[in-house]
Amino acid sequence: MSTRPDRFSPVARTLHWTMAALILAMLFIGVGMVSTAEPLYPTLLAWHRPIGALILVLALIRLGYRLRHPAPPLPADLPAVQKLAAHGSHWLLYATMIAMPLIGWSMQSAGGYPVRLTTWLVLPPIVPRDILLYGFLRTAHTVVAYCFFALILGHLAAALVHALIRRDGVFESMAGGR
Amino acid sequence: MPPSSPSRSPWPAFALIGVAVGLLALAFLWVAGWLQPSRIGGGKLADSLEYNAGKHPGWRRAHTKGLCVTGHFDSNGAGVALSRASVFRAGSVPVLGRFSTGGSDPFGPDGRPTFHSLALAFHLPRGEEWRTAMDHTPIFPVANAADFVALQIASKPDPVTHKPDPAKMKAYLAQHPETQAFLDYMATAPLPASFATGTYYSINAFRFIDGNGQSRAVRWQFEPETKGGDLDKKTLDQQPVDFLFDDLIARVKQGPLRWHLVIVLADAGDRTDNATVAWPANRRHVDVGTLVLDRATPEETGGCRDITYDPLVLPNGIAPSDDPLLAARSATYAASFHRRAVEGPHPDAISLAAKGGQK
Hints:
The structure holds two protein chains of two kinds. Chain A is mainly alpha-helical.
């Protein structure tokens, strides 16, 4: 089983698309749940915590994998500014997908909430109870979430520019078939 | 992959990308409620409390004046047949509680015809908690979030008369006989003379799940061992400003205060989705243990201020009922908590009074 150097490996692709679905679902669940006081609110909240924990685990696995398996090179004719934007935005995406679950977990710890993942599992707190810290982290969780979504929109737009306008194989390196 | 021909215009593709990204952004904003200003979330419920009572930055938006209490719950084991929650196994678990009065004024007088409330957090093994915020009334004035907001708007006190606009209140009550029934109850039911002598009711129905996975609709109430009289409602406004809290502090110094946790089991047909409707008195009651409170500490140092008594923080074995008010309470407490956390806490009335007394 060999991987063509101009493509992401099947492992990288599986991680990318699984996490894409989870992170998008997570962002929609997050903004949706705080918008309502109907019974949907606790239902979505009960999904939000375990999905967040799963994203954290997958993101750490993915970061480890990515550090050992570099991405295919960008096209040589891509302007330097765009290359910089591509690399910068990718590391920002990694940073955000790891930071968001940690902010959520810390904020719930600071607020004194049990972080319940399932009926039988409650995570321990990772920071001491502190209402001012809770206030800061709770605000950060929202602000970073909106920035994360904007980053994802930029990522999607850039991917589609590669696919439909530049047609340079960058989109196919993650999305293409065999 | 063939390069695109030089004659091909990129603009249709750019337009397509713009539409795709724009639609995703629009869907996000719709889910977030930005395109639907009428949607009621925790923030809007907290807004309605601020509209009614004015804004008190740094404080809980409701049940603002309070006192921390600690102690433990001695379970007698009788609850195991009803719920698999670890709190019901025979033994003892620590409890962090909070007594409070209704309303949003952190320095308001205790002598008002309002809720006397007890909130409890049971600290259970394996990181679990059971939190419950209860009132001395077995019924609540509204059944859902929208009615709660409507009541806060209709009952906003006039700055001069300190009473709601009679026309607005009349119009609201004409649509809400359940709120009128609650007001009638408050007008006639006795107001306990002490926090120590009140019975505290779960407000909402919940579900207990036993070891076999079987689920039962329940409410619960904490019934006091300490017996005492009722307040004279005619002279309420002549009582000292902190008399309820001072009384509790004095009583706890004399010795521990006890309540029995009584689980009330619904009969088939009892409403579980409406906190304005009481269950008949003849429902089966099960005494599952004794709450012992032996220490009272002002909020500033007592540990009960910087958490929420969210009624949906439940252990395995207790689940929400279909009462929509539970989600509304949970969302409101969360919004209030975020606001007061960002604003920062202030010394409470009881702490300040204690410090003043020492000087």
